[in-house]
Design goal:
single chain; 19 strands; four-stranded antiparallel beta sheet; Chitinase A, domain 3; extended; Triger factor/SurA peptide-binding fold
């Protein structure tokens, strides 16, 4: 149990640190708030700093952008979807827990925080060991002091301990798990008739003029051109400048150092660690292994563990640390080391493979780094010119003037909501194009790749129903598809009626296929599976259209879950786990709200609005 909790604690800290290093330290200008507004509110005696709220908001917006291929979510979109409210609720909840931790005196020791700080790759030097100067520099570059960062780690770890205490031991009722398992794992047998256009008694004829008119009038949205905005723009991207730029040697060396962990990797080993309660127990296990009485795997099983439980993956000597690291890296070939004291107690280590140190010298890495160096230099050059371009526009220059007098290139686009090519592939441009008003003066805006653009709305055409003559071929094709689907559905319904009147399905004419003991999702396309498991009793039938095909299905048997399915227990455990998580989440939310209510919540809406305004 103690090992499990330690492992969970470690994972929580690793997750937190990855969030801070990868997302949360990305250069957000939190100093904007420091001189004017320090907090957006408080829970009890614990203030909710503007920095904390701003960083949480920034992290989530960046995470959404990363998950959508770089498409930036505006603060307005985040507010409309409830994301901002959710983030604010989370920082309030965290503050409430911090206040409760302070009240009851729960915290995490300095040694544990120090160990976790030293494990973060961003704070390591070329040799893989902790580099205090790198630690200080990284934090200072992102507006954090060591004390602030370590306090954040400590607070999150304390919250994790409280969360574990609140929700530990929660299990859903067995009847709940059984009911869900029976429903999800239920199997069904089915007979099917598959009908396509080739099964119709006669081909669908060509549409008449009246048919076309009816189709056109029934579905006008299909033939309506979207609103089109005629937009002129001037733009400049790093890619446009790439062929004019030579890589900067100083920047190449800087990039090499920034990516040093990619080019210089210390010796590592694939390691498993089996921890014991004390050194006596560890020595006894070692003696049995050494004498051949049992294997290392036997010792693992004897402790009720699996190999996955003890696997450390590929680790360096520094990551293992202390005497344990020295013992593991003293081996010259795969084997066992120990028993030796580790950070979790006495342990025996097994080395499964030795990964040699890898080093790519700067000269070899140069070609790999050159494109990034060129891009970075182009971004800086564009940024340096941006104010000049703004000044030209402010002085009355047109987009055409910009294209003639600067490196910016002129373009035009008939922009619609579906435009996604060329400059319209940029979310920043699409947002500006959607917001543009005819008569507005162009202004220079940034693109997410470091480029810039300015646009002018020259005209707007509202959504317009195209004339029938202009879309006649499309209307005819749509009519044929609709008529084919209608006739197939009619034929399937006629066959269904005959089956329901007692006729043998196999004697109806079309080929009948049968499938037995199908699980949910086991019949494709998906609408077929959905329809099959929606039928209530054996013998029930249904007509299922899907595109230009139609199926007639009959439910032949409802079968219980397969008791011999090797995945059955895993499914039950998954159901129980999800149910436990749901119960835990509800309980924890109720606990957090109770803590907030008891401590008292105060919010400064003006401060919240000020933070939100920084993202507009």
């Amino acid at each position: 149990m103690s090992k499990s909790k330690g492992k969970q604690f470690s994972k929580t800290l690793v997750w937190l640190m990855l969030i801070f290093v990868v997302l949360g330290l990305g250069g957000f200008g939190v100093s904007n708030f420091g001189g004017r507004v320090e907090a957006i509110g408080s829970v009890g005696d614990t203030k909710i700093s503007t920095d904390t709220y701003a960083r949480a908001l920034q992290r989530e917006l960046r995470a959404r952008a990363a998950a959508t291929g770089g498409q930036t979510m505006s603060i307005a979109e985040a507010q409309s979807t409830g994301l901002v409210d959710a983030i604010r609720a989370q920082v309030i909840s965290n503050a409430a827990l911090d206040n409760e931790m302070a009240r009851i005196g729960v915290s995490v020791g300095d040694d544990q925080v120090a160990r976790e700080v030293m494990r973060i790759d961003a704070f390591k030097g070329p040799d893989g060991s902790f580099d205090r100067e790198a630690y200080r520099y990284t934090l200072s570059q992102n507006g954090l002091t060591e004390a602030q960062f370590e306090t954040s780690l400590r607070d999150e770890a304390a919250r994790s301990l409280l969360q574990t205490a609140v929700v530990a031991g929660l299990n859903p009722p067995e009847t709940y798990v059984d009911t869900l398992y029976t429903f999800i794992a239920e199997r069904r047998s089915v007979s099917l008739i598959h009908l396509t256009a080739g099964d119709l008694d006669a081909p669908v004829p060509d549409p008449t003029g009246d048919d076309l008119t009816a189709q056109y009038e029934a579905t006008p949205a299909a033939y309506t051109a979207p609103m089109t905005r005629k937009i002129a723009y001037a733009w400049l991207t790093p890619e446009m400048m790439a062929d004019r730029i030579e890589p900067d040697e100083e920047l190449l060396h800087q990039l090499y150092q920034e990516h040093i962990d990619q080019f210089v990797q210390p010796e590592k080993r694939l390691v498993e660690r089996l921890v014991f309660a004390d050194m006596t127990e560890a020595q006894a296990a070692w003696d049995k292994i050494a004498s051949g009485e049992e294997s290392f795997d036997d010792a693992v099983a004897a402790r009720g563990l699996s190999i996955d439980d003890i696997d450390l993956g590929d680790v360096s000597e520094v990551q293992i640390g202390g005497a344990a690291g020295q013992a593991v890296f003293a081996l010259t070939e795969p084997g066992l080391a120990g028993p030796v004291m580790s950070d979790l107690g006495p342990a025996i280590f097994r080395v499964n493979a030795i990964l040699a140190k890898q080093e790519v010298p700067f000269e070899e890495a140069r070609e790999t780094l050159a494109p990034e160096a060129v891009h970075d230099r182009a971004v800086r050059m564009i940024a340096d010119k941006m104010s000049d371009f703004d000044d030209l526009l402010a002085a009355g220059a047109t987009l055409e003037d910009l294209a003639r007098e600067t490196d910016m290139e002129l373009g035009e686009i008939d922009y619609t909501a579906n435009s996604d090519q060329g400059i319209a592939a940029y979310q920043d441009f699409r947002e500006a194009a959607n917001a543009a008003v005819e008569g507005d003066f162009p202004e220079v805006k940034e693109l997410d790749d470091g480029g810039i653009f300015a646009l002018r709305l020259d005209g707007e055409t509202p959504p317009t129903l195209r004339p029938l003559d202009a879309v006649r071929d499309q209307v005819a094709e749509d009519w044929r598809a609709a008529e084919t689907a209608r006739e197939l559905a009619a034929k399937a319904e006629a066959l269904k009626a005959r089956v329901e009147n007692g006729e043998d399905m196999a004697a109806l004419g079309p080929e009948v296929t049968s499938e037995s003991a199908l699980s949910r999702g086991g019949l494709m396309p998906q609408p077929l599976s959905d329809a099959l498991f929606a039928l209530g009793a054996e013998g029930d039938t249904a007509v299922v259209p899907s595109g230009d095909e139609v199926w007639l299905i009959r439910l032949d048997a409802i079968l219980p879950p397969d008791g011999n399915d090797p995945g059955a227990e895993a499914l039950r455990q998954s159901i129980a786990s999800q149910a436990s998580q749901g119960i835990a989440q509800d309980l924890y939310s109720s606990f957090a709200q109770a803590v907030i209510n008891a401590a008292g919540l105060s919010l400064d809406q003006a401060a919240i609005n000020a933070v939100n305004a920084q993202f507009r």
